[in-house]
Amino acid sequence: MPPKQHVKAPKSRKVTTGESPLPKVIVAAVIITAGRVLACERSAPVEVAGRWEFPGGKVEPGETDQEALARECAEELGVRVEVGDRVGPDVSLAHGRAVLRVFAVRLLGGDVPRALEHTSMRWLAVDELDSVPWLPADKPIVAELPALLA
Question: Residue 30 is part of a domain; what is its CATH number?
């Protein structure tokens, strides 16, 4: 009987199927009340602190875009919302590794947003949209707002 040989297992390799992985989805809310849209000032990370965005965040596994946005609005603003139609196109982020999807959102039950995770927030009229330094990803959405704020 030949002696047993010990064979070192090869290091695991990433198997590629030729398809690129799906991008991470980030959702954001356009909340309009009395002809003004809610803008939120980032507090972190340092490289984007002081820039402005629409509130929102990452879609977690098992969540729909709408469920994630409702959860993010509750966490960031302390409000209940009804998620409506899409606003603008998907915006590519992180060299295609993520995508931003923005939805029109309506506040429910008289809820009033509070800046729970942002430095500050402002309600901007159409002629004030350029008064804050928007994050680059949000600028294509800002371009869609005049029609919604009319």
Answer: 3.90.79.10
Contact of 54 with 138, CB cutoff 8 Å: yes
In DSSP terms, which residues pair with 81 in a beta bridge?
107
Query: Measured between alpha carbons, how far is 30 from 84 in angstroms, rounded to an integer?
Result: 10
Query: Residue 6 falls within a domain, yes or no?
Result: no
The Cα 111–Cα 115 span in angstroms is 13
Global confidence as pTM: 0.83
Ramachandran angles phi, psi of 93, nearest 5°: -125, 160
Single-letter amino acid code for the residue at 36: R
In angstroms, rounded to a whole number, what is the distance separating the alpha carbons of residues 92 and 106?
Answer: 25
Q: Give one DSSP letter per residue of 109-139, joined into a string.
A: TT-----SSSSEEEEE-GGGGGGS-B-GGGH
Asked if residue 133 lies in contact with residue 51, where contact means CB atoms within 8 angstroms, the answer is yes
Interval 21-55: pLDDT, tens? 678 999 999 999 999 999 999 998 898 999 999 99
Count of domains observed in the chain: 1
Q: Looking at the domain assignment, is residue 64 inside a domain?
A: yes
Tell me if 91 sits within 8 A of 141, measured CB to CB: yes
